[in-house]
Amino acid sequence: MSFTGPSAKTIVIIGGGASGVLIASQLLRDPDPDLRVTVLERQGQFGQGLAYSARHRDHRVNVPARGMSAYADDPEHFWRWLQRKFPGQYENSWVFVARRLYGTYLEDVLREAGESIPGRLRVLSEEAVALHETASGVEVVLGNGTSLACRSAVLAVGHETQPARGRGIAVRVGSDRDTPLDTDAHVMILGSGLSMVDAWVSLSEARHRGPVTVVSRNGLLPTAHRDVAPLSIDAADVPFGTSLTYLTRWFRDLIAETTARGGDWRSVVDGLRPYNQRLWQSWPDNEKRRFLRHLRPWWNIHRHRLPPDLHAGLVRAIANGQVQLLAAEFTGIERAPGGVRATIRPRGGASVTTMDVARVYDCGGVSVDVRASGNPLIRHLVQTGAARPDPMNIGLDVDGKCALVSEDGHVSTRLRVVGPLTRGRYFEIEAVPDIRVQCASVARSLLAPVPAQA
Asked: In angstroms, rounded to a whole number, what is the distance separating the alpha carbons of residues 35 and 73?
């Protein structure tokens, strides 16, 4: 692929998951017939990504359908798609669909965007391994040894999972090593967040009867959704720029006031959502680190909630003793006759406990240390100085327009980043309702004239 002159509107999007589809669909809403968009996805499955490639029926999105439109300015788009594909199946838009179904929706979004003006969209099952910014554009180097030339490029690579712990003894849910188990086997799950719920769902669908021990540092479970309206919060009342201690006290007081009036704490959490990114950006780096170290687990279980029926089923499994939730630190693992021997240290204790189980599932969630990235493109950008980690090391450093910032502080005019890789600046940028707004903004900036570079 090539372009004629620096003014040609040719854009390469690296990553074909949710972030890549959302930015591509926003770009292709532009009526310019000369626009050319190429989407690269090494897996060859567009719209799937880490989240929406889940195969099990009860691996579901944790946002109701009414909030999952690909377009912020057309909030009913996904709901209309559901009604068209499955007439009469869903009573209302407060429904939590299977993630694989949402992946199909994203595939349709990308296809329809490409068909709006035929010939402008190309999708390739290739991996980008390097980027070189030039005076006239960007060279995208592919794993097959060829290159693409374009005016601008967008990194939309999404989430990465951490390598499974324990020298490869622990297993990732859905991996090739996740082979069928004896239904009465004792299983351990590391982590108690949404990834743990996926593991429990997989075991439940396989009619697993054996004990399941869930180990996490804090022993916290995600909470359940409830269909309540967000609380109306005035921006003037939000304590931007204050200490984390003051904000926490203000937030708890607001919840207490709301529940005393018969309201629900969820409405407060959801009412604060429009200000979450601004709050994060108002803190100095030391306050951000305090939040990540001390408060993030509590925030996550209240902010990223479960469909009510899944939550109720998990609570029942804990109540009847099949699932045991332990607040403990995982300290080691080794192979043992007939399975695995895991070592844990209960919270507040000095001594360790060993447990013999058939399998350990590592559900520690997604990787949040960009320095440990397994993506060759991210490693190339950081190692060559074309990019730098953000101050928290949880993503790449970008400016307010999502332009990539190099090691020496240079802000690129041709390279943009969207989705979870920008969490250092935005923090709340992992769910579709947030990413779609970001992608709309980045698309507008990409379609604007590019300043001349030396």
From this structure: 22
Q: Give tens-digit pLDDT for 12-40.
A: 999 999 999 999 999 999 999 999 999 99
**Residue 275's pLDDT is what?**
97
Strands 36-40 and 147-150, sheet pairing: unpaired
pLDDT tens, residue by residue, 395-420: 999 999 999 999 999 999 999 999 99
3 state SS of 100 = helix
Compute the average pLDDT of residues 341-352.
92
Residue 29 to residues 120, 142, 432, Cα–Cα distance (Å):
11, 27, 18
Helix (H, G, I), strand (E, B) or coil at 81: helix
Strand 152-155 with 10-14, pairing: parallel
DSSP string for 306-325:
BPHHHHHHHHHHHHTTSEEE
Contact yes or no for 364/196 (Cβ under 8 A): no
Contact 131, 395 (CB under 8 A): no
List of domains in the chain: 10-160+368-447 (3.50.50.60), 187-223+306-362 (3.50.50.60), 235-303 (no CATH)
Go through 53-68 and write b for each residue having 16 or more CB atoms within 10 A of its CB, e for each that does not: bbebebbbbbbbbebb
Q: What CA–CA distance (Å, rounded) separates 205 from 189?
A: 16
Scanning 181-339, the segments in alpha helix (DSSP H) are: 194-205, 244-260, 265-272, 276-282, 285-290, 296-303, 308-319
> Which parts of 58-120 fold into alpha helices (H)?
77-85, 99-115
Token couple for 193: 């967040």
What is the C-alpha end-to-end distance of the chain, expressed in Å? 24
